[in-house]
Amino acid sequence: MTTIFYTSTQTVTVPVDFSTLTYIDCIGPGGGGGGGQSGITAGAGGGGGAFSQITSLSGIAPSNQYHIQVPAGGAAGTNAAGTTGADCWWKNTAETTTYALAKGGTGGAKNDSHNGGGAGGAAASGTGNTKRSGGTGGGTRGGGGGGAAGPTADGAIGGTGNNSGYNAGAGGGGADGGTQGVDWTSGATGTAGGTGANNGGNGGAGGNGNNAGAGGNGVVGSAGTEYDGSHGSGGGGGGAGTSTGSGGVGAVGGNYGGGGGGGGLSDVGNTTGGNGAAALITFVYATAGNARAFGFVIG
After folding, report:
1. HSE, side-chain direction, 13 A CA sphere, residue 271
2. Which tens digit of pLDDT belongs to each residue from 236-270?
3. 276: nearest Cα among 7, 19, 23, 45
4. Which of 279, 222, 280, 210 is nearest to 251 (CA)?
5. Phi-psi category of residue 255: left, alpha or beta, with phi > 0 → left and psi -120 to 50 → alpha
6. Alpha carbons 6 and 187: distance in angstroms, whole number
7. pTM for the whole thing?
8. Which whole-number Å values give the CA distances from 114 to 6, 40, 75, 109, 142, in the listed order?
9. Based on the number of CB atoms within 10 Å of its own CB, is 213 exposed (0-12), middle (13-18) or buried (19 or more)?
């Protein structure tokens, strides 16, 4: 078998040694974490990207061409909601037929209502034989990002951040059937991220709160390893802590598809969430003849 990882939008040419398709997997990008307004609001976590797989594609043959879209993650908000990740897809060159599509996660809210976690990419809106949903981002102040869906299961929900005082942020959700990020309940210590399952990435921990200085930044979600040592479904980024000083920054979601963590509340300036992680397409096929199995990345 040969595995090709696509990490950017491009025209794909099927390799000359192609024999039969094993699968094409799409992981949608994560949504960006929301950012807060000075003295008023904080940010909620962005949703994790969805997963879609196809195991057959009529007429595929060596030298055929297709268009693919492999977008960056949703951008973090500063005194604003995070942006939603664009769709990840594999289409014909005219872009009139969609063979596989995974939705991106929704951006987390600029959160003044103690909710607002971004929805995970929805399996029901995707295209494929197997479809799974990304985890929803955690709401309230400094919510964790949602974990990305993977080949085995849905992504997990990000932890819910604090709702009063100058307290800690919450951990991001684990990927591919992992556990939810831990909700904040009390205190100034950031909560743990969820544990990924099936080689999906772990969620990052939340940042610490601080009643007298800077709030802590969230911890980046870890990369998934379902396909190899660096490619898979990522955990959600940790949400940031709140502070009377400068608020913490939400963390970036893990590669690939993890949602960004929400920014913390600050009394002295606006805060920023974490970016969602980028999308990924994995193309696996059997080679003609006796070609050796290998894998490579096309950016």
Report:
1. 44
2. 999 998 887 777 899 999 999 999 999 988 888 99
3. 45
4. 222
5. beta
6. 43
7. 0.96
8. 38, 12, 21, 10, 10
9. exposed
